[in-house]
Amino acid sequence: MTEIRDVEVVVFDVLGTLVDEPSGLRAAIREAVPASDDTSVDELLTLWQQHVELEQQRIAQGHRAYANTEIIDGEAAQRVAVHAGLTDAAAVARLATAGQRLLPWSDSVAGVERLARRFPVLGLSNASRTALLHLNAHAGLRWHQALSGEAVLAYKPAQEVYRLAVDTAGRPPENVLMVAAHAWDLRGAQALGMRTAHVRRPVGDPPKHSDAFDGQFNGLDELVTALTPR
């Protein structure tokens, strides 16, 4: 088992790493459009995800002023509604907040709690501050502090988002561990000098052969063991 030494603060990505975002969005779409079959729900989910990804890229490229995830998710919900013929304003409004009602992976709550007994633990998310607050409460995630990219008006993998975590940690980046299921996220943290750990999830972005992260783990239990060896 890999051991990761000299870590003083642990930083977790949230969406996809600790909560199952696609399943949560899929469930919300099915609730909003109950007549949809599995194929239609998957199409609507793809429409949602493509909108979010495109708008965050436009912001990163300077083609759009920063808009938080509540705004972008609201736009995505409207696109889904138009495509599905959904005209119930209340249903569309509820769909827009689907990202605040995501469920944790089975090992997330206990894993974060175990690490928090030994390390300061931060959440670092692209979710807006308000969305992150409600998401954490719904999923039962307990942090020492949760940080949103909204504080620096940027989305990961922009360097200022990781700098926010390092500055909050008050430790050199080489003593701060970024944990994520997305290799692209870890590359962004690595570029700032942070330590990195990939946790495999069904919806994550797997590492490439060229990636050299400090550790790769099948779940949080393995990560906790690597960080708290006997």
UniProtKB/TrEMBL annotation:
It holds the Pfam family Hydrolase. Keywords: Hydrolase. One of its GO terms (molecular function) is hydrolase activity, acting on acid halide bonds, in C-halide compounds. The keyword Hydrolase applies. The keyword Hydrolase applies. It comes from the Bacteria. Belongs to the HAD-like hydrolase superfamily. S-2-haloalkanoic acid dehalogenase family. NCBIfam families: HAD-SF-IA-v2 (TIGR01493), HAD_type_II (TIGR01428). This is HAD family hydrolase. The lineage of its organism: Bacteria, Bacillati, Actinomycetota, Actinomycetes, Kitasatosporales.
